[in-house]
Amino acid sequence: MQKKLFKNCVYLIGAGPGDPGLITVRGRDLIARADVIVYDYLAAPQLLRHARSDAEIIYVGKQAGNHALPQDQINALLIEKARNNNTVVRLKGGDPFVFGRGGEEALELIEAGIAYEVIPGITASIAACAYAGIPVTHRDFASDFALITGHEDAGRTGDSQVDWASLGKWKGTLAFYMGVKNLPVILGRLAEHGMAADTPAALVHWGTTTRQRTLVGTVATLPELAIEHQFKPPSILVVGKVIQLRDRLSWFEKRPLFGKRIIVTRSRSQASDVVEQLGQLGADVLEFPTIRIEPPKDISPLQKAIDNLIQYHWIIFTSVNGVDAFFENLQKQNYDARRFGHAKVCAIGPATSERLKANGIRPDLIPPRFVAESVIEALTAVDDLKGKNILLPRADIARADLPETLKKLGADVDEVEAYRTVMDASPKEAALKAIAEDTVDWVTFTSSSTVRNFLSQVDKEKLTSKKIRLASIGPITSETIVKAGLNVDVEADEYTIPGLIDALCNASD
Ligand code: SAH
After folding, report:
1. Domains in the chain, start-ordered, CATH in brackets?
2. Which one is catalytic: 3, 29, 35, 40?
3. How does pLDDT run across 409-423, given as a tens digit for each residue?
4. Fewest Cβ atoms closer than 10 Å to its Cβ: which of 113, 261, 314, 391?
């Protein structure tokens, strides 16, 4: 029944100002349900990740001077798609009814007899100001706030719809949309109508996104500053005393990795936590997945080891991938965590340990450092390894030093392949373009294979530019970078993802 409610309907959804996290819950739910999504230049493209894989996604973006699809054709498209029994989402930047032509589209839909709903969004002025540390109202500085189009024909005076006389005397906050081109005209009019030349004025470019930039001046100085600093659309122009608070209230631009462009080379499945954390710290993250995790070509050694699990004294897990592959097979073979019996478990690295706990196994030993010597030291401190059966479920390309040392100490070691790392050669246009344009600040490497596979897809010459820096998770990865003839600019103190992120923050000050 519920389906019927949504068919033949157009949802005019505010996508919010740019940060994809600033859409409403209802907006996101409807994107996930839509058959057709018609979206704009200013709607964050990341929001399309919520869409169904079979949804039809149509870009009708409008960028100043470059109308991808004229408004009447957008209207016709919405009507046609809705009539064909689709749930149609019309996704617009900010709020659909604030300088978004949402009103015009809704009127056209009524005319055509199509049902519609409006899902408001956070409009750019409020959000860009909030992220720039400018409260649009404040009891001491601004009791009112006006939203104005800055797009009116610059030559138009007599028939202007904008009440310049009132705005010139405005005591609170003014926000102009689409005002970059007319900046001198807008501020000139305000001054003509009585606004003090030293009233603070600011531009916020691509507010709430990792590309945000803020420029502060006055009604008199901002136009020149804007040319000097090359401010372009989309930007919000704010005028008013509240701008003074920015010095103290700016938070977004003060985050440790703000404005840094970082390439993450982990496998796509593992990258999401890193991407999320770096994004929270203000970085503009580009994914460059270099590896994919696949099952081993021959799974039988792992299956056999699982069948015989009880005979092992120690099982050493060296990675989250190893744990995942192991438990996947454990379950496939109809066992559960009880299969471990009295075997002791060693986890290399906190993430590996956490994943084991999530599978019902609390590791007996977590060596303080994640290199072979430390593992051996920790193991020999708690057990005499002579004659002990040790299982090492690991990757196809794992290093040999750990099993070799264990064997030297008299242990009986079974190394079984639990997974394979293969190169991910999927296209990476955005990251490659950024490298070519030298706009990348950091490339992060979390294993030797990420280094090798990255370098096989990127021209090494491009990495020796001044800007780009390389960050490594630990000494083994660093060694691979150096062997490839490149410099390691930063190495994590603790060989973990949080350690790597800390190192980036410290080095980016
Ligand atoms: N419906 C939208 C406004 C569309 S008009 C809303 O409610 O926000 C387009 C103008 O919005 C741009 O010219 C710019 O002035 C402003 N704008 C939109 N997104 C912006 C952003 N992320 N940062 C700064 N200004 C933005």
Report:
1. 9-122 (3.40.1010.10), 126-253 (3.30.950.10), 261-290+424-507 (3.40.50.10090), 294-423 (3.40.50.10090)
2. 40
3. 999 999 999 999 898
4. 113
